[in-house]
Each structure stands twice: as C-alpha cells, then as structure tokens.
Amino acid sequence: EAGVVQSPRYKIIEKKQPVAFWCNPISGHNTLYWYLQNLGQGPELLIRYENEEAVDDSQLPKDRFSAERLKGVDSTLKIQPAELGDSAVYLCASSLDQEGGELFFGEGSRLTVL
Amino acid sequence: AQSVAQPEDQVNVAEGNPLTVKCTYSVSGNPYLFWYVQYPNRGLQFLLKYITGDNLVKGSYGFEAEFNKSQTSFHLKKPSALVSDSALYFCAVRDASGGSYIPTFGRGTSLIVHP
After folding, report:
1. Which of A52-66, B22-36, B65-79, B87-101 has the lowest mean pLDDT?
2. Whole-angstrom Cα distance, residue B29 to residue B31?
3. What is the distance between the alpha carbons of residues A104 and A42, in angstroms, rounded to a whole number?
4. A42 closest CB neighbour out of B41, B94, B108
5. Mean pLDDT of chain A
6. Per-residue pLDDT for B16 more than 80?
7. CA nearest B44: which of A9, A45, A106?
8. Are the beta carbons of B56 and B1 closer than 8 angstroms?
9. B79 to chain A, minimum CA–CA distance in Å?
10. Nearest CA to CA, how far is A4 from chain B (Å)?
11. Which residues pair with A67 in a beta bridge?
C-alpha cells in the first residue's frame, strides 16, 4: 500500500514569491492534516480536513496561507507571498476517522525562503 | 487544553544498553498517547500507542512504553539499544474525551546510540 505522498520534497524561493505543496493521502483515509515543523521542534498543526471540509484551521495564517482539498482526496497548501520566516518543513499526514487512530506522515516538503 | 513535555533534548546511550526517552502529558480527560520516530530528512513514523487496557504497550522495532496515570507519563523504552535507533523521537497526546482528532506533539528528543 502506498504511503502519504508529498511534493516537492525541496523548494527554494525568494521572499514574496508564491509556493504550493501537494499531498496525496493514503487511500481511504478521510482525515488529512497539514503540519508545520521548524528545526528542532515538534510538528504544529496548520489545518485539518474531514473529507472536503476544513474543520480545524485556527492556526493557519489566513492572510498568506490557503489550503484546499477538492473531492476529499488530494490537498494543496499555498503560501502567497512567502516570507523569510516561512522556511520550514511542511508535513502532510492522514488517518482513518476512528478513535485513537495514529497519523501516517509523508516525507515532508522543505521550504527555504531567501 | 492538552500538552506534552519531553524534558530531555538529547539522550545518549551505548549500544546494547537499555534506553528510556521520557514523556509527560496533560489532558482534561483520559489520554490517547503516541510515540513517533523521525529519521533525518524523513517524515514521522508511528511506533506505538496507548488507547486503553494494559499499561505496557509494545510497538515496532522492539520499543515499548509504559502508561502511568498517576505520574501522567508515557516513557518510551527499549531493553537493548542499536546504533540504528539513533533518531528524533516525538511523544504526542490527544484527549480521548474531546471531539477533536488533533494530537499535540512534544518538542522531540534526539536519541544518540554510541557504538
């Protein structure tokens, strides 16, 4: 079974440029998460989807960040415009909608903003 | 609110010796507890979880963890460390009584196993 797939793995952009990250969750997982991981820190939630609906997005900086999950499968996270402080790893994870279900993470997308 | 504390930034252990990575948590209700491992430039991988039942939970790669409700702890253990166990370890907690499926992660502990 394929795991969570993310792309690109690495992205280097100049500040004020836009960037987008893509995530394909494990088949059948209806819950999808985007996490931000800074160096030396644990993952911090940006947004969580139940199928197509964003049910937890209070930590998403909505002035520059946006996300979508069309058809309840793949998801895209966009930053426009990017700032220097956005340099981090963006992790996508998925899980089954069940009590105590663990998360399955992708390899992450490492963003460097110059 | 829920939170996790991993009091050690780094744990050093010699290969073949037992290892312990510490985790304490805080939740309003009963906890769901998880351990994940992260190798360099990789995503997090699930190791084990406590949902209910036996306080001693066994997981992947010979790891186990003990849930202690009175001490609100969920320490990760392994009887004999391998050099290949060197990685970042994250503890996570979710409140079982809440409606959100969002786990909160600790800052992580770097485990270094010396040959």
Report:
1. B87-101
2. 6
3. 15
4. B108
5. 93
6. yes
7. A106
8. no
9. 24
10. 10
11. A77
